[in-house]
Model the fold of this input.
Amino acid sequence: ELMDLIADIRSAMAKTDYTCAIGYAFYHGSVGIDKLCLLADDMMYKDKIAIKGPEYAAKYTRQTTRTNER
Done:
């Protein structure tokens, strides 16, 4: 069901001048909400890299490294 929804979103977005990166995480009772948000966010950025290409990947990697150093 989720994958069908994502396919529908991608199909609709393809008809526009916009892009939409998607990330999600499932709760299984052993992970807190903060961790779920991080997992979904990481998936979304990986999707964004796949959409935008290697130039974005290099920029994102530099930003993530700086953020993780704090």
